[in-house]
Specification:
heterodimer, A: 12% strand, B: 219 residues, 0% strand
């Protein structure tokens, strides 16, 4: 029997180089130049296509609809008492050129509309926290962020994190490891260099020996234990976390006010912005590749017929859209840390927004709107075919009941909603995870199928 | 050579050390191949007919087992090690407990890192996570480094782990990994020991062996 050592992992090499350079305080552009020089000189195979992929899943709870952000022509034309809290009725709406409508509150996202796909025409199964059956009671399908973290195609230091706020969103993990549960306070501690009882030189000697020994053990275990070399890599990264203080790279104070707004706005929006800022910094230095952020707005009944609900609807639109716009700006202006070809994080990152169920837009029975009946999904990324997908039945008895699309053409289909499995495999395809291509809503993606 | 090239060159040299990526390609050398063959046979990878057997998924030691290792192999009665501040002082907090539940008002690693180690949280409907991850390796390595540093100052514990002297790794390997080290593993540990100050050699070997992937895996 001969043992064949696995191929040299260029992604690991480049990733570690990039992270080390960042840790040494080398600025982004200069870092890219050095990285490119090393890649070309030392490892020609580094030029081969091997794209990293990153994902942020924003999981909205408690019946939050995405209608305060986006709509289609069916909705914006609705007027009168039945739709009195619609942000499109009292607000000026604007069409983005691809069928996606925004309102004055969500206008910050209009420049990115070509990369934003929105639908609420998805079937719902289960109640609170279901989020496409890929979370609580999710069975054997792992959430996209979990599946991507397991692949860790960017060879990030830590595979991924979740800001779950006390399990308000529970990932289904299938055969994979769940993301690490963090808070604003504990996120940085994942990367903080701990006190060690010996000096740096001796710690480096320990790290080197630990890496070698675990790799040797991985070779021995290779025929008995799955992914033994990945285990060795994980252990090596862990020991190296004791030599370098990566936590210093996570300072978010220089990031835009729209993300960090400390004293104003809703608590859920403040948390969402701060969490996004941490995740983006983590991406920028390849400390993580995958993140889930739970956004809990409180039980959503804001299309009810009280004037008091007008402001919360609009605030949601303003706060969430500004944070998303700031996030996209950051992604577009920040180099992908493992790239040698000048890609930015925008080229490698997808944002998936899901909501566990969506309440209807119209008032129902004179005082409320119907619970559930559909789920919402927003996809944001370079490979997304922007637009508003599906439609709404605005006949009086239907309470703006959403409907879905033909998965291939994107044409609305009255009276039907797309399945959770279609939404799931579309998300999986977007982030490059294994998926069932027969179930992908290809109309919502470009360049992937 | 310009400055940028100098920087790049020094980085490359550091990385070869840091990532242990060299050699870039190729097989293990002959000695390593023999080692692997021996080990594979020893842990029985095939059934009688030579057919392949399903690979086992890595299962990380839970904190109780790690705690027992600290007690039984490193003679630490509490089965846990303190958490340190950046300056090396012990963290003090009223909220901390030792792994065995004693309320001694001191922060301890295993007790304070239950979530990171994948402990079940029944109150929040979270099952135990037994997978092997970077985070768990980090917690365990930190624990073992501190435990080894403390206990290798103790001649009794040191004598138990290195009964034939600090250059013989058979006993410590047997205790933490459950088998004797292969030649290639002995070479790695010898190289490590040679690179450390004499007073830190036992500590270094202890730390690396106790935090190795095989030592931290349920087999």
């Amino acid at each position: 029997m001969t043992y064949k050592k696995p191929n040299f992992n260029r992604r690991n090499f480049l990733s570690k180089t990039a992270t080390m350079l960042a840790g040494a305080g080398v600025a982004g552009l200069y870092r890219y130049e050095i990285l490119n020089s090393i890649a070309k000189t030392l490892i020609p195979q580094a030029q081969a296509a091997d794209s990293p992929s990153r994902v942020i899943e924003l999981c909205f709870r408690s019946g939050t609809p995405f209608l305060p952000l986006f709509a289609n022509a069916d909705i914006v034309q609705q007027n009168g008492e039945m739709y009195m809290n619609s942000p499109y009725q009292r607000n000026q709406y604007q069409e983005a050129g691809n069928g996606l409508y925004l309102n004055d509150n969500s206008a910050a996202l209009k420049p990115y509309a070509e990369s934003i796909a929105f639908t609420q025409g998805l079937m719902q199964s289960g109640g609170h926290t279901s989020n496409f059956r890929i979370r609580r009671n999710g069975g054997d399908m792992a959430a996209p962020a979990v599946a991507l973290a397991a692949r860790n195609p960017s060879a990030a230091v830590v595979h991924g994190v979740k800001f779950a706020y006390g399990n308000r969103v529970v990932n289904s993990v299938g055969d994979f490891t769940d993301l690490i549960d963090v808070t604003q306070d504990t996120f940085g501690s994942l990367f903080k260099k701990p006190y060690m009882p010996v000096n740096q030189t001796e710690m480096e000697a320990l790290a080197k020996a630990a890496g070698k020994l675990s790799r040797q053990q991985a070779a021995i275990l290779n025929r008995a234990v799955a992914s033994s070399f990945q285990l060795s890599d994980s252990q090596n990264k862990a020991v190296n976390l004791m030599n370098v203080d990566y936590a210093q790279l996570l300072d978010t104070s220089s990031m835009g006010n729209a993300l960090l707004m400390d004293s104003t706005g809703s608590a859920y929006a403040r948390n969402m912005g701060r969490d996004l800022a941490k995740v983006l910094k983590g991406f920028a230095h390849n400390l993580i590749s995958s993140a889930v952020i739970a956004v809990s707005t409180g039980d959503w009944h804001r299309f009810r017929n009280t004037d008091a609900n007008v402001a919360p609807v609009r605030n949601f639109g303003t706060e969430v859209s500004q944070k998303l716009a700031e996030t996209i700006k950051f992604l577009k202006s920040t180099p992908e840390p493992t790239s040698t070809t000048g890609e930015t994080l925008w080229d490698t990152t997808s944002i998936i927004m899901t909501t566990e169920f969506t309440r209807g837009l119209a008032r129902f029975s004179g005082n409320d709107n119907r619970d559930g009946r559909s789920q919402g999904m927003v996809l944001i990324g370079k490979d997304v075919q922007g637009g508003a997908y599906g439609g709404f039945d605005t006949s009086p008895a239907q309470d703006a009941m959403p409907h879905g699309i033909n998965p291939e053409t994107g044409a609305p289909v009255a009276g039907m909603r797309n399945g959770e499995d279609e939404a799931y495999h579309t998300m999986q395809a977007l982030v490059g995870n294994p998926h069932d291509s027969s179930k992908v809503m290809t109309a919502m993606l470009k360049g992937k199928m | 050579m310009n400055t940028k090239a100098l920087v790049a060159t020094s980085i490359i040299c550091s990385l070869v050390f840091y990532t242990n990526c060299a050699p870039i390609s190729g097989d293990l050398d002959q000695g390593q191949q023999q080692d692997v063959d021996l080990a594979s046979t020893a842990i029985g990878q095939t059934n009688g007919g030579g057919a392949s057997v399903a690979l086992k998924t890595c299962e990380f030691l839970d904190s109780d087992i790690i705690s027992n290792i600290l007690r039984n192999e490193l003679n630490i009665p509490s089965g846990d090690v303190p958490v340190y501040e950046e300056d090396g002082s012990v963290v003090q907090s009223n909220d901390c407990r030792t792994a065995n539940g004693n309320n001694d008002m001191t922060c301890y690693h295993l007790a304070s890192k239950q979530k990171e180690l994948g402990a079940a949280d029944l109150a929040n409907d979270v099952k135990a996570d037994k997978s092997c991850s970077t985070t768990k390796y980090k917690v365990a390595a930190e624990v073992m480094i501190h435990a080894c540093f403390a206990q290798m100052q103790d001649p009794v514990t040191k004598g138990q782990l290195f009964p034939e002297g600090e250059s013989n790794f058979d006993e410590i390997y047997l205790r933490f990994v459950g088998r004797q080290p292969l030649q290639s593993e002995n070479e790695i540990l010898s190289e490590l020991a040679d690179s450390l100050q004499p007073e830190n050699r036992a500590f270094g070997v202890c730390s690396v062996v106790a935090s190795s992937i095989e030592a931290l895996m349920v087999l």
